[in-house]
Amino acid sequence: MTIVGTKLDTFLIIAYFVLIFGFGSYFARFTRSTRDFFFGGQRFSWWLIAFSCIATTVGSYSFIKYSEAGFAYGLPSTMTYLNDWIVMPIFLLTWLPIIYFSRVTSVPEYFERRFDTKSRVMATIILMIYMIGYIGINLYTMGVALNALMGTDTFWSAVVVAVVCGLYVTAGGQTAVIMTDLLQGILLLIAGITLFFLGLNFLGGWDAFWTALPLEWRLPLAKFNEPHTFHFVGIFWQDGMANNIVYYMMNQGLILRFLSLKSEAEAKKTFLFVILVLMPLGAIATANAGWLGKAFIETGILSSDTNAHHVFVKVVEVLCGPGGFGLMMAALIAALMSTIDTLINAVAVVTVNDIYRPYLVHNRDDHHYLSAARVISLLATGVGVVLVPLFAQFKSIYVAHGAFIASVTPPMAMALLMGALWRRFTTPAAFWTMLGGSIAIGLSIAYPVLITPFGHGVDPAGSFKYLRALYGLAVSFGIGVVVTMMTRPRPLEEIQGLCIGTLAHARERFKGGPVNEEKGGTITGHLQIVPGTKTVSLHPSAMQLLKARSGDLVYVCDRRRWLGGLRSVHAKLGPEHREGVHDIHISQDLAEEGELLASRSHRVEKIF
Amino acid sequence: MAELADARDSKSRDLHGRVGSTPSRGTTMPHHWDSFLYFFLVGTAVFLIGVVMPLIRKDLHWRKASDRKTLFWMIGGYLFYLVGYLAWQYYAIGKL
Questions:
Q1: Cα of B93 to nearest chain A Cα, Å
Q2: What predicted TM-score, i.e. pTM, was given to this entire model?
Q3: Do B4 and A461 touch (CB under 8 A)?
Q4: ipTM confidence
Q5: Residue of A230, A298, A503 lying closest to B59 (CB–CB)
Q6: Could you please report the per-residue DSSP string of B49-67?
Q7: What pLDDT does residue B39 have?
Q8: What b-and-e string marks burial along A53-89, b requiring 16 or more CB atoms within 10 Å of the CB?
């Protein structure tokens, strides 16, 4: 079935594409190096990255998938978004400092530095298959969504989105991804939550909605181990454990996002805001159409034969008039494109840093690798489009994709986790954890009975779709422990900053000297361009306010906070100057790197 | 009204609206309290591993103000979810 909007809706959707394309392409001016292309210059504020993270999280199928689950099973459909607190400490206290201070740019790079080249190669292969396949899946599901909603051809809808995404990512790199995702993240949250309020109003208020839902639909968690299509214990292990590790520790797009923040402290704020505020909002925004659909059926507004697959469309049709429908479609497209652009950029990072530069073309200048990254972005988009007809041949793409992800990611996730949390974990163990774990999972697909000991009483008729993740994690862990006990670990000095117990050194290496953690304030002033390279210096009274010393790392940014750090730069503090108290002496190269405008007032803060 | 009665039927349905035909294995606790307990027992164990290991390995120092602040927010976040889920559970079953 399709519903087709009015001319106003079509105009809004086209206008949205044009806006996003133009907005993203604008940021080409801020992309001059691979550091800019991959990390956005390491300059951004926490709130900007936080909203862009939620846009990456809410993917191509989120609105439709979670509405389906919300309709069929109720508020337990929020479990996926509300279980990230489990991995908070692992991410904040261990993984974030590792990637930020050791300047690990990709998961394969981490595997090489922590283990060896063989592990890096295996990780690269797994990750590339995952990411490129995921681009194709996202493009395909978006084509399906637009086909259902607007009657457009599945393949050509996917092509249009691919072209728009591919072009602005190629031009603007990570900065374009972050800025467009910021816009798209805000839009999809507003649209989703607006839909919820429209629905509540339509029903006659919160009480009418709440009492219309059956008891099981109102509970926060699903039944423990049934039905086999949706049960608590399976989702706990598949999503709460395995997928959270994959998402926060292995997702290349998210790693790049956190590395683009101006400091570790900003990264912590971002993460906490995402977990505590944006994830709950995201849960409501994506699933509420399903809850409303159920309430609409209970109150006779919708027919009781409404299919879960179409509930999002049906609810939008009931609640949104002309214009409103276009806004909802723009939000859906926002969710779709904000995942694809992150993946395209991430593929470019992994390809350049883990394949092209180390193995194919060495010792070229940064401009060459930047050009290569742009070409690869276009190629990745093209490959994703080519995969669309392939995925279209599967009867149920989500099952195929889910099985693929569950087969690939648990062994790599466990190797990563053990590498970060266990200093004794050896290089051969990392390799065999990934290989052995993958083989064990492959066997479990052929013989699901292998998963029975981990079954928690779940009906085996579903082939343990979710609990395969627990089986994979457990088997991989076992292999990792056994091989570690039989082999020797690398000397501790070779893995400084790459695992727990070594992170203090990582901070010092990052700065290039002892860390100054004395808490200071911020100062504002005007830039004075001075001779020299990579130079920033301040008046003694300014340094006193900052509690900073020569050699400390400082952050200089445009005073307009709404820019989110777009015009900013990091630098090491040079010797004091004795001129104006509010003068910020800065060399031309740093001013250009940070896109700083000398006519504007700037803020300086000490990092450490 | 038969349609509404059917819709209110709390039997599990799959994504196509079909009622599950497999025999129920049943939860042992009403209102899914077993799910709640498992969530916060196993989840808390993993959470604590993530906190305790850096403390033992001295990547986290209780005496450092910035580390205390991080711990405060994390534990606060954990309590937010624990209390939030508990309140939701009681509200859903009409005891709040």
A1: 7
A2: 0.85
A3: no
A4: 0.85
A5: A503
A6: HHHHHHHHTTSS-TTSHHH
A7: 97
A8: bbbbbbbbbbbbbbbbbbbbbbbbbbbbbbbbbbbbb
